[in-house]
Every structure is written in C-alpha cells, then in structure tokens.
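Methods — Computational structure assignment.
A single polypeptide chain was analysed. Its primary sequence is given first, followed by the predicted tertiary structure written as structure tokens.
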Amino acid sequence: MSATVTTERIGWKKSAPFIIAHALALLAFVVPFHWSYVALALGAYFVRMFFVTAGYHRYFSHRSFQTSRPAAFVLAFLAETSAQKGVLWWASHHRHHHKFSDQEDDIHSPSQRGFWWSHIGWLLSRKYDAPRWDQIKDFSRFPELRFIDRHWWLPPLLGVVVLFAAGGLPAVVWAGFVSTVLLWHGTFTINSLSHVFGRRRYLTKDTSRNNWLLALITGGEGWHNNHHFHQNTANQGWFWWEVDTTYYGLVLLERLGIVWKLKRPEAQTRDVYLTYTPEQRHRLVPRPAPAL
C-alpha cells in the first residue's frame, strides 16, 4: 500500500474478497444439508478462534507467554487460516489500539467512531492496509514472520484446498466460508460490542466491559475489562466462573512443553476492585450504550 494514502474511505476493490466470501457463505442454502456440516463448521470456528486469540492476540500482541521460534511460526500460520490478514499487521494495529484505547487516535473505538466503523469499517479502509512497523519491532525482525505476514492469503487458501480434498464442496462451504464469516464477526465483536455492552469491574481509562456471552463465542476474549486493566496476562478470565477456553488450551500446551511462562495476574491486582470507595464505584456503572 502506498504510504501516501490518508483517506479513510472504503476501498471497494481491496474489499472485494471480503464481500465475496460473505456471498459464498450463502451457498450453505444451496448445497445438500447435513448436521455433520454444521458440526464441521463449528469445529473449524472454535479451533481457529483459539489460534486467533492465543496467537494473534495473547502471544504476538501482548507476549503473555513464551514459546519457541518454530512454534511461534506455527501459531502465526494457523492464526492466519482465519483470513484476518497478516500476523504483524494484526498485532501492530492491536498494540496501537491499546496505546490509544477509546481516544481520538483509536482506529476502532465505538465511542469515538460508532459501531459500524469499529466493527468492520476500518478493516475495509485502504488507510490501514499496512502494518504499523513501529509497534511490532520485536517480531518483525524474524524473516519467516515477515514472509507469512506478506503472504497472509496462503494459509486460508491451503485450508480451502485441504477441505475440498477431504469433503468436497460442502466442506468448503460450511467449514470454509460459513465458518470464516462467523469467525470474522465473532472476532470483530471485541472491537465493537465489548466496549459497549457489559459490566465494568476495574477502573480503566477506556470503555472496556466484561461480557460473558462474548467470552463464550470468542474463547474468553469477552472478559475485556479484565484485559484492559492488565493487558499481558495469558488468562483473561480471572475467576473460576469466567470461562476462558483459550487459557485452558494454553495450560494444556504448557503441560506439553510447547509454551511456558504463562503470565497470570497477581492476587492483589485481580482483587483491587474490592478496595474501591463508594465515590470510585460510581465510575463502574455502565453508561448508556451509544446508538448503533
């Protein structure tokens, strides 16, 4: 992308694959139906959601655990099967979001820009096509990550080939297009809805909220107020009742020796909300949701 692009207008040409994928997902109403296809789509959704949240987010964006260089590449590759662009692009823009969360420079703040822009509009703008290299200097020094970031379309393309070889057109439609479209919008809810709906346990300078429903559909990412209060923890559900399936998967990988040094919040950090005075507590009452 040219560095001179400053307009935030939607780039319809570059957005064509995104739009076409939504249209191809409608083929689910054309191909023969079987409940096994639904199960396949849900399996592809939640498996790839794990790699989006564990890879793109908790590792490459926040370095909430450690792993080997080969395993990091595998995380990046499998995360990119979600077709959410390159790993360096994803992580660098997410770091920028945390730096300016719900301020004027936050590129996908619903309180600043509204639901449509925060959920999907900014992704379709040519202005944000390139990674923010100043935000991702730690990982951009690895040539294999630069390669997979530049050729981010390779993992989803290979995924489609594998699906077609294994299950033909129905597998491509359900586990490919239907699952991917759902995965996109499930992920995007964290940019949009988790800053609008839910409860605020911690005093943060943004509008982040904890939402149990969003946590269920995103592998634990819906505990967003927890995350914004302490960004680099491997677990975002901090209490036993806060379901965080991404964290459970990371614990399994830790026991297998694939990842290690998972960062977790200390008790005094997690429980600081218990010390809030009545004067402070009024700030935790959710404000009226902005119009969508």
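Note: The chain has a mean pLDDT of 92.
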